[in-house]
Amino acid sequence: xxxxxxxxxxxxxxxxxxxxxxxxxxxxxxxxxxxxxxxxxxxxxxxxxxxxxxxxxxxxxxxxxxxxxxxxxxxxxxxxxxxxxxxxxxxxxxxxxxxxxxxxxxxxxxxxxxxxxxxxxxxxxxxxxxxxxxxxxxxxxxxxxxxxxxxxxxxxxxxxxxxxxxxxxxxxxxxxxxxxxxxxxxxxxxxxxxxxxxxxxxxxxxxxxxxxxxxxxxxxxxxxxxxxxxxxx
Length: 233
Description:
The chain is of the alpha+beta class.
C-alpha cells in the first residue's frame, strides 16, 4: 500500500523532482507481472525493451489506479500513460548511464516547431528533443520488479535539478560537480516518481541480482502543443 499521503508525494516531486514510494504493488502482483513479461517475445536491446504499452500486461498496470492516481496527483485528472520502457540490468546484460536529462518525446509525426529537435527515429517511432514547457507536463513512474540496491546499479539523481530547464551536456556536468547526489534504493513493488528534467544516472551492477523495472511516462495532454501530438508507445 502507498504509505505516504498523495499530498506529501506531490510536494516532494515538485520541490525535489522525485519521490520514492516503497510499497505500491504486492510481491505476488510483481512476480506475476515479471512472469508475464518474461513470456513475451519482445525485441530486446542490451538495456531492455522500448515501446511497451502495446503489451497488454504493461498497459493494464499503467492504467492501474494506484499508478494512475500518483500521476494524476501531479499532473491533474486528465493524466494518461503514453510510453513504457522495460529496463533489465543484470550481470549478463550490464550497462551504465551517464548523467543526463530525459528530453526526447515520441511523436505521431515530424512537424518543425521552434524549440523542438534534433529529431530521430527509434524502432519506427518519431522522436524529438522537447523544450522545458512540454517536459514539465510529463511525469515518470519507475515500477521496480526487483529490489534496487547499492550494488545492482540503482538510479542516482541530483535533487532539485529539474527546476533549471533543459541543460547542455556541459551544464549537466557542472551541476553534478557542484551538487549533492542521492542514490535511490527501492524495494520490489516500490516506485520512484520522477520529473524527466531531473539530472540522473545509473552505474553498472556489481551484483548477480537483477534490476528490472518498468519506466512508465504520463502526460497531461496528447498535444504538446498542437500540431505536435504524442505517440502512444
